[in-house]
Amino acid sequence: MRCPFCNSENTKVIDSRPADEQNAIRRRRECEDCSKRFTTYERLEIFPVMVIKKDESREPYDRQKAEKGIVLACHKRPVSAEQISGILDEVESRIFNTGQKEVPVSMIGEIIMERLQELDAVAYVRFASVYREFKDVDTFAKEITKLLKKK
Questions:
Q1: What are 100-119's pLDDT values in tens digits?
Q2: Least C-beta-crowded within 10 Å: which of 9, 35, 50, 76?
Q3: How far apart are the C-alpha atoms of 10 and 31, rounded to whole Å?
């Protein structure tokens, strides 16, 4: 592993521990040349999953793209980075465990909405309004009414 500060290959592992609910290993490293410390994550490489979009086009699953949508929905809401990471971990676990090489985007969106509904109603409505492409205020109001009935 190269040091991100001085580009040296002379690094050592100081500490290793499980991360992301046992799905990764977090390694704390130190460069023996410049003495700076940095963290790396080791994850199991899983076969690439293609996402079938609404227009029937396909693209590789992108964790950062899903994360961006969740972060936008949770902006200024009491949802932690760990909770967002947990949602993403669950999405990946569920889509990879299907064993399918292609999954519909609707599956990913539904998992995210299911989890956001449990965490924060406002973040859920924000995400749903973009994901379900609410066309008018009535559609928005119907979704909020459904939420209120569940409580």
A1: 899 999 999 999 999 999 99
A2: 76
A3: 6
